[in-house]
Amino acid sequence: MAFRTLVALAFVASFAIAGDPPPGPSAEEAKAKVAALKAAKEVEARKTAIADAGSCPHATVAAALAPMVADADDAIRTAAVEALGSMKGLADAAKALVGGIAPNAKKPEVLKAVFTAIG
Fold it and tell me: From 1.20.58.220, 3.40.47.10, 1.25.10.10, 3.90.76.10, which CATH number describes the 27-118 domain?
């Protein structure tokens, strides 16, 4: 009986120690990342903006990246997939990754990136 009590106390204490998860990015941060995505026109600038957007796990950013998994340029597709994959725990990013399977069915390198990002 004492063992169960200790396990229960340890379980409860783990929540107190862990605390609340850190807050996610603000809507303003997400808006800035989306603006940067829209402003980038050249492939390298787009890839940089996409990689930077991956550091902002927000539904607005995931929605902006989602269509890029079917971009005409495979490098952009892969960058978008990797950015979405870095948004662990964000349902919108996971949905965008799953949505990237069909349009990349005939693109094995991008498809590999999609499955790697999904985990």
Answer: 1.25.10.10
Query: Could you give the 3-state DSSP secondary structure of residue 82?
Result: helix
Q: Which pLDDT value is given to residue 37?
A: 97
What span, in angstroms and rounded, lies between the C-alpha atoms of 39 and 108?
29
User: Using alpha carbons only, what angle is made at residue 82 by residues 76 and 83, rounded to the nearest 5 degrees?
Assistant: 90
As a whole number of angstroms, the distance between CA 67 and CA 73 comes to: 12
Angstrom CA distances, 16 to 7, 13, 20, 52, stand at 15, 5, 9, 33
Report field, pTM of the whole predicted structure over 0.85: no
Q: How far apart are CA 17 and CA 23, in angstroms?
A: 17
Choose among 84, 86, 77: nearest CA to 111: 77
Arithmetic mean of pLDDT, 50-55? 97
Q: How far is CA 108 from CA 7, 22, 36, 104, 116, in A?
A: 48, 36, 29, 7, 12
